[in-house]
Amino acid sequence: MTFDFSPKSSFLQEAKARGMIFQCTDPQGLDEALLAGPITAYIGFDPTADSLHIGNALSIMMLRLLQKHGHRPIALMGGGTAKIGDPSFRDEARSLISAETIAHNLAGIELSLKQFLNIDGQKVVLANNADWLDRLSYLELLQDVGVQFSVSRMLSFESVKQRLDREQGLTFLEFNYSILQAYDFRELNRRHKAVLQMGGSDQWGNIVSGIDLARRTDNAKLFGLTTPLVTTSSGAKMGKSAKGALWVRAEKLPIFDYWQFWRNTEDADVGRFLKMFTDLPVEECERLGSLEGADINEAKKILATEATAICHGREAADEAAQAAKRIFEQGALQAALPEKQLEKSLFSESGLPAFRLLTEAGLANSGGEARRLIRGGGARLNDQAIEDENLIITKDYFQDNVLKLSSGKKKHILIRLI
């Protein structure tokens, strides 16, 4: 059911106030459980890459919020389910990954989680479903769990129906994913007394399956809660960027780029993102989000710094904010750099290759010269070296429609969009 409930427990009250709840299986029952004492809840993270990304940020913030209100969070890494791949709302099956790749990715996911959560202090349980799924025999699973699942019910899940309607059908391998995730919920209830599973709205069917399984086999009362799909005001999915995936690990994405992503938030999204992705009080988030004109840009800087501090630490966040200030305020404006105006249409979704931008800016006389400049390490964009001559420059690289481009140590120019 949709969450239009007025909770009494502090966790649900704050999660609702921050816009972090989409659906809940039993709001009244969950609220009562939270009021009765600390509960244990979990969210799963499949190791499809060796880092989490901004698209995972809301799930991580839910675990942080749960811990803040005195409850026990579990971060479940899908070392077992990764061998199948979650088919939920995907156009086609995920490519199967090797055991070696899964192990490598698990290490990266653990490092990602440690950036946000106090795992080493044992305040967060870090689990891996391979610990129990790898030991299962097929016949054991069929006898214990298979008899509890209705195929007609599974076919009614929206995520399944969408795949069945497409050219790329749903394989039997993928069809088992929901069963294994349900098994995870029951296993975590047995091992750690987890009574709540949280996840994105696309996980609703899988969560309900786990609740039903535990009720049928263990007579356990479990709950499910989902977060909304986060999109920008213009309709783009959260975390999608022309630069590629917005990873949380600094080895995968420079901290400055992480800060800059949040700084480039659309005006209409500032208040909402402050509530979801920072620890600032809700009232302050709403005040900042209501600012207009030039003031909203200051709110964006606060969003960028606070969100980056949660992921990379306060010192790194402040350094990124100062770097942006040097580039766009002190370095650019005070030095009165020459300016080149270019049409915004050049930087649409298809963007402009870096070597072409250098020629458009007059920092190179030809494409060949621009490519050699980049290969020699002499070209910089916003004071960061351009390493790929074919890097696609889009509007994401601009701040307040301005970008700084450099050739060597002495030639600099501002590119301004018109």
Automatic annotation (TrEMBL):
Enzyme Commission number(s) of this protein: 6.1.1.1
Function, as annotated: Catalyzes the attachment of tyrosine to tRNA(Tyr) in a two-step reaction: tyrosine is first activated by ATP to form Tyr-AMP and then transferred to the acceptor end of tRNA(Tyr).
Listed GO biological process terms: tyrosyl-tRNA aminoacylation
SUPFAM superfamilies with a match to the protein in the record: Alpha-L RNA-binding motif, Nucleotidylyl transferase
Broad class of enzyme this protein falls into: ligase
InterPro entries: aa-tRNA-synth_I_CS, aa-tRNA-synth_Ic, Rossmann-like_a/b/a_fold, S4_RNA-bd_sf, Tyr-tRNA-ligase, Tyr-tRNA-ligase_bac-type, Tyr-tRNA-ligase_bac_1
Pfam families: tRNA-synt_1b
Residues that, per the record, bind L-tyrosine: Y42, Y177, Q181
Subunit description: Homodimer.
Key word GTP-binding present: no
Catalytic activity, reaction form: tRNA(Tyr) + L-tyrosine + ATP = L-tyrosyl-tRNA(Tyr) + AMP + diphosphate + H(+)
Family, similarity comment: Belongs to the class-I aminoacyl-tRNA synthetase family. TyrS type 1 subfamily.
Single GO MF annotation: ATP binding
Motif ('HIGH' region): 47-56
Residues at which ATP binds: K240
Coiled coil feature spans: none
Keyword RNA-binding included in the entry's annotation: yes
UniProt KW keywords: Aminoacyl-tRNA synthetase, ATP-binding, Cytoplasm, Ligase, Nucleotide-binding, Protein biosynthesis, RNA-binding
Gene Ontology CC: cytosol
Cell location: Cytoplasm
Encoding gene (name): tyrS
Short motif 'KMSKS' region, span: 237-241
Protein name, entry field: Tyrosine--tRNA ligase
Organism of provenance: Aristophania vespae
NCBIfam families attached to this UniProt entry: tyrS
